[in-house]
Amino acid sequence: MIPSVGKALAEKAAGKMAELIVVDYMGRSDMDNRQSLKRNWQELSCKASDIEEEVHREEMSGKKKRKREVDSWLKNVKNLSPEIDAFETRGSSWRLPLKEDPVGKLQLQVKELVDQSRHFDGLVLDNYDNIGEPCLPTKLFGVKFEAAKQRIWPCLVTDDISSIGIYGMGGVGKTTLAKHIDYHLSEKPSYQVLWVTVSQDFSVTSLQDKIANVLGITLSNRDEEDARARILRGAFSKMERLVVLILDDVWEEFCLDRVGIPLHPNKCRLILTTRSREVCDRIKCQRKFDLQTLDTDEAWDLFKYRLGSETLLQGDLENIAKSIVEECGGLPLGIITVAGSMRGVSNICEWRNALEQLKTCSIGYHEMERDVFPILEWSFNRLDKYERNCFLYCCLYPEDSKIKKKELIDLFIWAELMSKRDSRPKAFDQGQTILNKLIKVCLLEETKDFKADDRVKMHDLVRDMAIRIT
């Protein structure tokens, strides 16, 4: 009994002695190891931050995506951070057996990550999936549009111009022109283009959130507007290239400084699109460009281009088609919508009937939209019962929503908007057919989200028309 107790006491004493040795060791040489770990971790953290920032800038163009090995490396650095923090917090309170060396273990992990970062053969790859909007925008038609682009371009390379306004009625092509400017600027390495869609549902905080999103930063909802604005100004100031911020579809004036947009010819420039010249004036755009409708020949060229080669326009059929184009009043959106509805139609009786229907369309609308709304209504009237149901359902989504195709078809089925089918696969096929029809007649636009998932969206004028019909 006594010998066993003595043995236990001896083992306990030996353990205590080992612990004291560890404490003494950590008081001297291990302190140097801790300082070395701290320095190496700081170096690794800075490197990870720089790589994340560089990768994010490349990804914002939509033409590049991060390599998998880079993404995995960044995640490993992030996962190691809590261990480092916990170790520093516990500090000298650690009491471990001699065989365990937490400092050495962390040192090894940090060293491996630093070594990995030195062997990256580039950080990004070409993004052939081309997330988001198509890289090459819709073709511009008309001398006026090309002239507007040529007049805007010098303003972007002139040292004293920091703000540009593009205005015109709905459907005239303001967004299309802005996308061309975006595309050509993105080809120049000295520019960083940021695109934000503002829309009718406007507030300073919502605009701040949208800008923060394209800058790759996060704003707290608990912060006041002024604090959020300071964070945005700080983010803009860190951009290495000349920033061109494009605000599309602005409906009302706002104070740039209140949002956190620091205009400067050599740091940050602004391009906005709006339906109102007054908005351009109140935001104090230095240059303002008015987009006009297409002339007769330009409208006809656009119609033929969007109609495609399926329909041969000759003789009386061509004359009727030209009369239909005249009813569009030179509005690109109206012309594109009509051409989409008539694509593949070859019977002259259908063309004559389409012209008569277009002439008799009359929906209540604002003066600015008096030309385009009847055209959109005409296209809607050419749909069958189930296609109309599905189309009107889409306007329940908020403005500028990018809606997943599969999600939308599932809702068509759930809401019983289509004719009955005896199985879900057959019902889904019907929904896909209707969705394809709405895209074909240009009442819905195809797009993609940041994950390259297929989605659809409504032009804001098309949505306004749908809401008024309901």
From TrEMBL:
MF GO annotations: ADP binding; ATP binding
Alphabetical keyword list: ATP-binding, Leucine-rich repeat, Nucleotide-binding, Plant defense, Repeat
Organism: Coffea canephora
Superkingdom of the source species: Eukaryota
Location of the AAA+ ATPase domain: 160-295
GO biological processes: defense response to virus
Listed PANTHER family: AND NB-ARC DOMAIN DISEASE RESISTANCE PROTEIN, PUTATIVE-RELATED, NB-ARC DOMAIN-CONTAINING PROTEIN-RELATED
Keyword Protein transport attributed: no
Protein name: AAA+ ATPase domain-containing protein
Keyword Nucleotide-binding: yes
InterPro entries reported in the protein's UniProt record: AAA+_ATPase, Apaf_helical, NB-ARC, P-loop_NTPase, Plant_NBS-LRR, WH-like_DNA-bd_sf, WHD_DRP
Pfam families reported in the protein's UniProt record: NB-ARC, WHD_DRP
Family: Belongs to the disease resistance NB-LRR family.
